[in-house]
Design goal:
single chain, 360 residues, 13 helices
């Protein structure tokens, strides 16, 4: 009963915080910039991430200190501090853009705070023998890359109303379901549901009905990526059923694949990997004629598929477990490949039509 109250309180706190941020932003004219790479119109604040992040941090702080049933211990205070730093640096970036090197340094420092506290992946899969059973010393670099990479990946996917937030809610719910099936009595289920609740509090103001009233901004997207990377690591590290690296990775394939594609695209075109463009997965779906709501529906459905495959992989042992997990990776890759080629064909047909001679 106490956990239900905590989740509900985190949702209400998020709604209040986001609403306050919205009103202050409107009063101070803190609106998102409009340029060639942005697809929205009108004056829309971009600091919504402050609202749901503050709500989650307050919830996590009090749970850690005062709830002995769910508390992960005082060592979780350092990761909470890292979350605060990530949020502050992201908000600063929303006002005065930081250089990629500075942002990467801050993200790396925060990732080290998590690893130093003892939160890392311990194994790649649930099943397997030999090298498949444990990560050993490689757990530290893999966990570091996981945290920093996902913080940036969520920033990349935050491109249209309701997308990053909605996907994050589904990932958080998947985490909670996984921890439930693993009989986790620690903080995993509670923190995952609280995260889903605070994001839902933000989505009330962010869904395209008809358009968002506030964006989460870089502070919000980086915070989301960081906490989603942290959740599978905060389960009791002495428990046998901690979430392995490749199962956690399958749940975040949409932002990860989109980021890998963006990096490859920019390297191929001899551009900086942090240079902006309009070729992310949501841009490609827009080029194919989908509305914001339809894009959200398509990518939400893909995220649900990923969650289902991971859950099946957990419930079924042996070779079938690896097969279901592989289906998540292969299915998401196939989706990205199909959309890529459909979009390329669409752009090619539009280009050809634009150069056709006008009939006299």
């Amino acid at each position: 009963m106490g956990s239900v109250v905590t989740v509900l309180a985190s949702f209400i706190l998020s709604v209040i915080c986001v609403f306050v941020v919205l009103k202050i932003s409107q009063k101070k004219s803190w609106y998102d910039t409009i340029n060639d790479r942005k697809i929205h119109t009108g004056d829309i604040p971009r600091l919504g991430g402050i609202g749901f992040a503050v709500a989650f941090i307050i919830t996590a702080f009090f749970v850690t200190l005062f709830d002995p049933e769910f508390s992960p211990g005082l060592r979780f205070m350092l990761p909470i501090g890292a979350l605060i730093i990530i949020l502050i640096s992201g908000v600063v970036d929303d006002f005065t853009p930081l250089s990629p090197a500075v942002k990467l340094f801050i993200q790396g420092l925060c990732a080290l705070c998590v690893i130093i506290s003892g939160y890392t992946f311990t194994r790649p899969f649930f099943t397997g023998t030999g090298w498949l059973s444990a990560l050993g010393w490689t757990a530290y670099p893999f966990s570091f890359i996981w945290i920093v990479g996902l913080a940036n990946a969520m920033n990349f996917i935050d491109g249209i109303d309701g997308l990053a937030g909605g996907i994050s809610v589904l990932i958080a719910i998947s985490y909670a379901a996984i921890f439930f099936f693993l009989s986790d009595t620690g903080p995993g289920i509670l923190f995952s549901l609280c995260l889903a609740a605070v994001i839902l509090g933000f989505l009330i103001f962010n869904v395209p009905l008809p358009k968002a009233r506030i964006f989460m901004g870089d502070g919000g997207s980086q915070f989301l990526g960081f906490i989603l990377a942290l959740l599978p690591l905060i389960v009791d590290q002495e428990a046998r059923n901690t979430l392995p690296m490749f199962h956690a990775g399958a749940l975040v394939l949409i932002p990860v694949y989109d980021t890998v594609a963006a990096i490859w695209r920019r390297l191929r075109e001899h551009r900086r990997i942090d240079s902006p463009d309009k070729a992310h997965i949501h841009h490609k779906l827009m080029n194919l004629g989908l509305s914001y709501k339809q894009i959200d529906a398509v990518l939400y459905s893909l995220q649900i598929f990923l969650g289902a495959m991971v859950l099946l992989s957990i419930k079924i042992t042996g070779l079938l477990s690896i097969i279901f997990l592989g289906a998540a990776y292969a299915g998401c890759l196939a989706f990205f490949a199909v959309i890529h080629y459909l979009n390329r064909s669409r752009l090619k047909s539009v280009k050809n039509a634009s150069v056709l001679p006008v009939s006299q």
